[in-house]
């Protein structure tokens, strides 16, 4: 079992998320995370879907996604060829005397303190997937009382873009130089 | 030009070339039924929306054109669900149009509201809730394009009542907006050459012909390929008729109830050429033990079928209508360059299996009536010229096994979904699509009772379908499994043969009802039924209740565990297991 990251461009139309989510349910595929947002083209949304499974199984996910009418493009982003990030907001219960230690820990993970309560701190962390898990493990000792994660987003390294081989009609607008 | 959404819908269907719509009106679809009155569409008023769905399927199977069904919101729409699921599993091109509650009531649990796009999401190729009257022509055009292109399938278009009532602009043809919809393009010539070379080199090739051959109308090219390569041919349940059963290379149906020769040939093959087939579990048996020595050349229009169940050695993604003629040309070139392959020994082996282990059943002159006998008589009397329709179960397997098919689109059944109640409404759709031709539904008594109400529709529309009920008083296939795998502990499978009285039921529906209880009467009763040309004829065949379907590969077992059945001796069964050819 390995983790695979799929970048999926979809038409920004009602019901698209249901079609994608429904496909995963129908084909008994497991999603470990899914995040959706608009792209620079208002007609197109981008999903980043992380799935666990053998590569033959993921190949099947990929092909079945391609068949959805509202799906424009599916690419698998290999970990070493992509930048992967996840945002987490973490509320930690902390005694005043340990607050400085916690802030030091956060700093070492480049996490920011975004709220300070009388006995809690909210941290904002943007990390590569493994690193976020490491931070959470460290924080566990302090007592994490609430956690929210966005799910992974990813983009390829280098000059290639996801729309490179797509017809112009569905290409994202060119950058203004 | 301004028209209402309802008018736009009906005009779009007309422009799309639709002539037949199967449906049943209700509250939210009402606006569409007004312009239908003055349109060129022939609307067939069914008695249950499931009947409309299966009729649209039968029409599509029989004609190759898109079948259309229409229903109202809520229960009208949910009654289409079984048919949509059936069409999805068997890649049948149908378009379903459903009314939806008025836009501002969606989500409020309004009267007859159901989220039909949500419900049918996993059983349609695509669906859409239309939210703007201007969208109607494009939504309909797209639905037909999606349903009929690539790997065909069902598409549902859900239209709220207020959208049907709103005025909007009318123009045809509309611009389709499907930037993400992909249909495979021209096949890769190097892969075709590779496949041709593999076929020529194989010493035990088998053509594994699936439903895609019928859908792409490429039966003639399959025939050419077979004649050229002298490779034996199996036709799956979805492909019966794609290759004539009387052809010397025909091995018949493979799979759980397949011919021994077809099953054994695939198991022993060194090259399986899969043409529009999907390595379904009912064909492969236990997948890990399927055709262990075979290389695979897989040709399919759906990329997701490649490698889904069995990893191919050569995969060609494309429309068989395009790929097969190219493959035939490449095959000729391959043979010209390197000489023909040698399948003589292999053919002798498969012919030996055909002769040693044929279908076998025992019809005693005074004994119980065997369903196989009825099918064989029908086959002989119609010369393989009828359009045969079946549901699911023993009757379906007996029909597929014993009817000698001669041409494509003459076999219609519920393959992947295994839908009880498919036959009568599907026969209705087939008869409307092919008027003047002989349409015979072979049905079980269990199946028949699920959708028998469409006899009323058939009688009123003057559709002379024949319905041959194999009335054994049981849910026969379930009974067979209980006999074999549950120590004959029969649980909830006995229906009884006399209630309802099928002859009276047929007459009550305005059909001709006949009964046949003895083998000696089969010909005379069939003759009588086949001669009726104005209303449906229903024949209550009282068939043997303990008759099973054989050969059989028990579910989950390897195809090597094929059981020939009670008409074969233990010696024969053992010889078959060793794949020996017995002296003739």
Task: Spell out the blueprint of helices and strands.
The complex is a heterodimer of chains A (177) and B (584).
Chain A: E1 2-11, H1 16-26, E2 31-38, E3 44-53, H2 55-67, E4 71-77, E5 82-93, H3 99-108, E6 112-116, E7 120-127, H4 129-140, E8 144-149, E9 153-156
Chain B: E1 2-4, H1 5-15, E2 20-24, H2 30-37, E3 42-45, H3 49-63, E4 67-71, H4 75-78, H5 81-89, E5 94-100, H6 116-119, E6 126-129, H7 136-148, E7 155-160, H8 161-165, E8 167-169, H9 189-201, E9 205-209, H10 211-215, H11 219-229, E10 233-235, E11 250-252, H12 260-268, E12 271-275, H13 281-284, E13 295-300, E14 314-317, H14 320-338, H15 344-356, H16 371-382, E15 387-390, H17 394-402, E16 411-412, H18 423-433, E17 439-444, H19 445-451, H20 454-461, E18 466-471, H21 476-485, H22 502-508, E19 512-516, H23 522-531, E20 537-542, H24 570-577
Parallel strand pairs in B: 2-3, 2-4, 4-5, 5-7, 6-7, 9-10, 9-12, 10-11, 12-13, 13-14, 15-16, 15-17, 17-18, 18-20, 19-20
Antiparallel strand pairs in B: 1-8
CATH topology of the largest domain in chain B: Rossmann fold
The fraction of residues in strands of chain A falls at 35-45%
CATH superfamily of the largest domain in chain A: ACT domain
CATH class of the largest domain in chain A: Alpha Beta
Portion in helices of chain B:
25-40%
State the fourth-level CATH superfamily of the largest domain in chain B: Thiamin diphosphate (ThDP)-binding fold, Pyr/PP domains
Largest interface: A-B, 26 and 22 residues
CATH architecture term of the largest domain in chain A: 2-Layer Sandwich
Strand content of chain B: 15-25%
Order of helices and strands of chain A: EHEEHEEHEEHEE
Largest sheet: number of strands, sense, barrel closure of chain A: 5 strands, antiparallel
**Mean model confidence by pLDDT of chain B:** 97
CATH names the topology of the largest domain in chain A as Alpha-Beta Plaits
Radius of gyration of chain B: 25 Å
Put simply, the count of helices of chain A is: 4
Q: Please identify the structural class of chain A as seen in this structure.
A: alpha+beta
Quaternary: heterodimer
The number of strands of chain B is: 20
The domain count of chain A comes to 2
The overall strand count of chain A is 9
CATH top level label of the largest domain in chain B: Alpha Beta
């Amino acid at each position: 079992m390995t983790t695979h990251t799929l970048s999926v461009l979809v038409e920004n139309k009602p019901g698209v998320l249901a079609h994608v989510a429904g496909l995963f349910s129908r084909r008994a595929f497991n999603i470990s995370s899914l995040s959706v947002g608009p792209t620079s083209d208002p007609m197109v949304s981008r999903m980043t879907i992380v799935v666990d499974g053998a590569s033959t199984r993921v190949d099947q996910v990929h092909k079945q996604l391609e068949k959805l009418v509202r799906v424009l493009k599916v690419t698998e982003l290999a970990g070493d060829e992509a930048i992967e990030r996840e945002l987490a907001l973490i509320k930690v219960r902390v005694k005043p005397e340990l607050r400085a230690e916690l802030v030091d820990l956060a700093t070492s993970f480049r996490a920011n303190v975004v709220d300070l309560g009388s006995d809690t701190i909210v941290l904002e962390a943007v990390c590569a997937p493994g690193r976020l898990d490491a931070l959470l493990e460290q924080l566990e000792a302090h007592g994490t009382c609430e956690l929210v994660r966005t799910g992974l987003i990813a983009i390829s390294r280098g000059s290639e873009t996801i729309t490179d081989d797509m017809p112009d009609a569905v290409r994202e607008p060119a950058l203004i130089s | 030009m301004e028209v209402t959404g309802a008018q736009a819908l009906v005009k779009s269907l007309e422009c799309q070339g639709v002539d037949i719509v199967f449906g049943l009106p209700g509250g939210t679809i009402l606006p569409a039924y007004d312009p239908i009155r003055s349109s060129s569409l022939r609307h067939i008023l069914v008695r249950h929306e499931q009947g409309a769905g299966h009729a649209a399927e039968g029409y599509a199977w029989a004609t190759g054109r898109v079948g259309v069904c229409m229903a109202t919101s809520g229960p009208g729409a949910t009654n289409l669900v079984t048919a949509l699921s059936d069409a999805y599993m068997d890649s049948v091109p149908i378009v379903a149009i459903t009314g939806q509650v008025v836009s501002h009531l969606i989500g409020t649990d309004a009267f007859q509201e159901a989220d039909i796009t949500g419900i049918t999401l996993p059983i349609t190729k695509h669906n859409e809730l239309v939210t703007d009257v201007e969208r109607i022509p494009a939504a309909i055009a797209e639905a037909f394009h999606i349903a009929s292109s690539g790997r065909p399938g069902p598409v549902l278009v859900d239209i709220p009542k207020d959208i049907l009532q709103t005025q909007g602009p009318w123009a045809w043809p509309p611009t389709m907006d499907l930037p993400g919809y992909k249909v495979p393009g021209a096949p890769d010539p190097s892969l075709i050459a590779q496949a041709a070379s593999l076929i020529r080199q194989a010493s035990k090739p088998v053509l594994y012909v699936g439903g895609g051959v019928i859908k792409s109308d490429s039966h003639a090219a399959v025939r050419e390929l077979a004649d050229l390569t002298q490779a034996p041919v199996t036709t799956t349940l979805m492909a019966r008729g794609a290759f004539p059963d009387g052809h010397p290379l025909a091995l018949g149906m493979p799979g759980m109830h397949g011919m021994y020769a077809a099953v054994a040939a695939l198991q022993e093959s060194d090259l399986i050429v899969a043409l529009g087939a999907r390595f379904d579990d009912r064909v492969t048996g236990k997948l890990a033990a399927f055709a262990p020595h075979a290389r695979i050349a897989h040709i399919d229009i759906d990329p997701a079928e490649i490698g889904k169940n069995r990893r191919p050695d050569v995969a060609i993604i494309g429309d068989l209508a395009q790929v097969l003629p190219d493959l035939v040309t490449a095959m000729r070139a391959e043979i010209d360059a390197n000489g023909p392959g040698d399948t003589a020994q292999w053919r002798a082996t498969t012919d030996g299996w055909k002769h040693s282990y044929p279908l076998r059943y025992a019809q005693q002159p005074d004994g119980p009536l065997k369903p196989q006998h009825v099918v064989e008589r029908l086959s002989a009397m119609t010369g393989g010229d009828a359009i045969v329709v079946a549901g699911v179960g023993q009757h379906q397997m007996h029909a597929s096994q014993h009817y000698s098919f001669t041409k494509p689109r003459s076999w219609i059944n519920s393959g992947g979904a295994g839908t009880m109640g498919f036959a009568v409404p599907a026969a209705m759709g087939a008869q409307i699509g092919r008027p003047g031709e002989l349409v015979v539904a072979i049905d079980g008594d269990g199946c028949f009772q699920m959708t028998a109400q469409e006899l009323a529709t058939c009688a009123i529309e003057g559709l002379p379908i024949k319905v041959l009920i194999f009335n054994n008083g049981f849910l026969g296939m379930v009974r067979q499994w209980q006999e074999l795998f549950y120590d004959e502990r029969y649980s909830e499978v006995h229906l009884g043969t006399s209630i309802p009285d099928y002859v009276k039921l047929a007459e009550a529906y305005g059909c001709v009802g006949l009964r046949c209880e003895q083998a000696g009467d089969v010909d005379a009763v069939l003759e009588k039924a086949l001669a009726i040309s104005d209303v449906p004829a229903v024949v209550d065949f009282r068939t043997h209740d303990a008759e099973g379907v054989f050969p059989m590969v028990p579910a989950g077992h390897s195809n090597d565990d094929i059981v020939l059945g009670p008409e074969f001796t233990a010696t024969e069964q053992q010889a078959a297991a060793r794949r020996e050819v017995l002296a003739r």
